[in-house]
Amino acid sequence: MAVHKGVAAALFRPVRTRNAFEETVERLLQAIRLGVAAPGEKLPAERELAARLGVSRVTLRDAIRAIADAGYVESRRGRYGGTFVAVTLPSPPPRPAPGGDLEDVLTLRRILESGAAEAAAARALTRAERQHLTAALLDASGTATGDGEYRRRDSRLHLAIAEATASASLTTAVADVRSRVNELLDAIPLLAVNIEHSDAQHRSVVDAILAGDPAAARQAMDEHLDGTAALLRGFLCG
């Protein structure tokens, strides 16, 4: 049975953000979870799907590989090959701890962390503050092994950005929301392509802060948070 074309057109619409990989993962998982692409059904051909989503075939393949590794699709070779939705889908991820409502957390995080990046860029940072921020960026490199170690380094960078605002209250608030975000992130796979993308976005945020450009710092952080939000919605919203 083929994917229903009318409904698929609504889901497989062009990706509009700069987080092409993350949003492609979200769209594919949404189609599978909503039954637009049912278990055992074949997804549209790569060329067609990439054109519908407005992404490169490389980005599409990376997204398909990510959800294949998570058990949502499988690739088959041969004349009748292609990408098929798994006959048995993975069990729903564990529910986050109380207080971990997804949209509540994402809204609060965007307000706090984008504001923190903007505020940090608006300050005349001391030499020590600039060094601390640069060191945190280097430490947050995706070369870390293991989910837990990467999450810790990533968290330290986001806290270093908050610290650069010189607001203890804001830093505490960012630490609290980051704890809630990590509860959600622990329920989804850690994707190599996303780590590479996050590393580049981290650099953009820190570069804008060090350059004293509040608008660019906010925009870069917004884009970074949008990518994480897309993955969380894709994997956690059933």
Give the arrangement of secondary structure elements.
Elements: H1 5-11, H2 20-33, H3 46-53, H4 57-69, E1 73-76, E2 82-85, H5 102-122, H6 127-139, H7 147-163, H8 168-185, H9 192-210, H10 214-236
Helix pairs in contact: 2-4, 2-10, 3-4, 5-7, 5-8, 5-9, 5-10, 6-7, 6-9, 7-8, 9-10
Short note summarizing the structure:
The protein is mostly helical and 238 residues long. The protein is built from 10 helices and 2 strands.
Question: Can you put this structure into words, describing what you see?
Answer:
The chain is mainly alpha-helical. It folds into two domains: 5-85, Winged helix-like DNA-binding domain superfamily/Winged helix DNA-binding domain (Arc Repressor Mutant, subunit A, Orthogonal Bundle), CATH 1.10.10; 102-236, Four Helix Bundle (Hemerythrin (Met), subunit A) (Up-down Bundle). 64% of the residues lie in helices and 3% in strands. It has ten helices and two strands, in the order ααααββαααααα. It has a two-stranded antiparallel sheet with strand order 1-2. β1 and β2 form a beta hairpin. It starts with a helix and ends with a helix. The mean pLDDT is 89. Keywords: DNA-binding, Transcription, Transcription regulation. Pfam families: FCD, GntR. Residues 18-88 form the HTH gntR-type domain. This is FadR/GntR family transcriptional regulator.
**Number of strand segments:** 2
Overall mean pLDDT stands at 89
What is the count of structural domains? 2
Radius of gyration over C-alpha positions, nearest whole angstrom = 19 Å
CATH architecture of the largest domain, please? Up-down Bundle
| CATH homologous group name of the largest domain | GntR ligand-binding domain-like
Number of helices: 10
Query: How far is the N terminus from the C terminus?
Result: 23 Å
Largest sheet: 2 strands, antiparallel
Helix content: 55-70%
Low-confidence stretches: none
Strand order of the largest sheet: 1-2
Write down the CATH topology of the largest domain: Four Helix Bundle (Hemerythrin (Met), subunit A)
Shape: elongated
The CATH class assignment of the largest domain is Mainly Alpha
Q: How much strand?
A: under 5%
Secondary-structure element series = HHHHEEHHHHHH
Structural class: mainly alpha
